[in-house]
Amino acid sequence: MGNATLRPPAKAAAAQRLIRAAGQRLTAPRTAVLAVLLDAKRALTHHEIGSALAPGVPVDRVTVYRVLDWLVTLGLAHRIPGEDRTWRFVASRVDSHGPHAHFTCSRCGKTVCLEAVATPPDVKVPRGFLPQKVELTVQGLCASCH
Amino acid sequence: MGNATLRPPAKAAAAQRLIRAAGQRLTAPRTAVLAVLLDAKRALTHHEIGSALAPGVPVDRVTVYRVLDWLVTLGLAHRIPGEDRTWRFVASRVDSHGPHAHFTCSRCGKTVCLEAVATPPDVKVPRGFLPQKVELTVQGLCASCH
DNA sequence: GAGCGGGACGCAACCGAATTGCATCTGCAC
DNA sequence: GTGCAGATGCAATTCGGTTGCGTCCCGCTC
Fold first, then answer.
1. What is the residue-level pLDDT of chain B in tens, covering all 146 positions?
2. In this structure, which topology does domain B9-91 adopt according to CATH?
3. Which end of chain A has fewer CB atoms surrounding its CB within 10 Å, N or C?
4. Which nucleotide is at minimal CA–C1' distance from B82?
5. Smallest Cβ distance to A132: which of B83, B106, B135?
6. Which nucleotide lies nearest residue B25, CA to C1'?
7. What is the distance between the alpha carbons of residues A124 and B98, in angstroms, rounded to a whole number?
């Protein structure tokens, strides 16, 4: 299939810079996957990522999984569990890696970050429990599904 | 974990009452599964539910799935997507079926309800989006894991 | 109490997301 | 240019969950 969706070169360059900055080996699959995430306006499933980078270099399914895992470990990406038992990934915002909310459309499964919504800073947990991460998920219908 | 003790009869009776009240057919698997949920202090995976009711009547894996699905449809149970790509179930509290928070231990996967934490009622979503359900999940370590 | 019908159950096969093992290839340090 | 640790690709496997279908049984009726 033709390059119907040309990835902006800027994203690829940004991806390379981030990988370099992390002191990691620079490879085509890593650059491609990270560029897709940086370019995305919403959280993507593994499958969506796979087809998004199809026009360029063909990357093995397993490699996509491993690259995503590696990005999450590096803190460059964020993994969100979905209602449909699959994971979605977003590139981490460098400026705000604090807690933020997610919106998931219950019809089409689209997931976006709600930067504007702040999660309550004071979470009361039972005695002996140690809170580490707070995640706020909003279910509903997105603009194009209702 | 593997508790060979008998399920408190009170829970089984309560389960039967709830099923009756919903105008549904009363069967052994339904009573057993709901009794397990009512007895649980935390959210259980399908697998945990299956082994919890093993000492009593052997219930087919598929039947457990169907019963849980049916309980969720009836509003008697609540399904929580977990970080480990599995679902967990809790019996719905009759008194408070409003939005409430969940705590998940990132080491042992235990999930409990945080009734005390109220989710922010005013969630700002992008124009055109229609929020329906707000879910607040806290990740961390539970009392017995740190 | 016996008969009956539709929904529930159990079994087995199936599906798709994710993972693992292993041989091969490659980025990059020297 | 060379060597090697680490990354990739392929195939097979695992595992949570689902579906199809024949049989069983709850609860209604007579």
1. 444 445 566 778 899 999 999 999 999 999 999 999 998 888 899 999 998 886 777 899 999 999 999 999 998 998 887 778 888 998 876 545 556 778 888 777 778 877 766 666 667 788 888 887 787 888 888 887 77
2. Arc Repressor Mutant, subunit A (1.10.10)
3. N
4. D16
5. B106
6. D26
7. 17
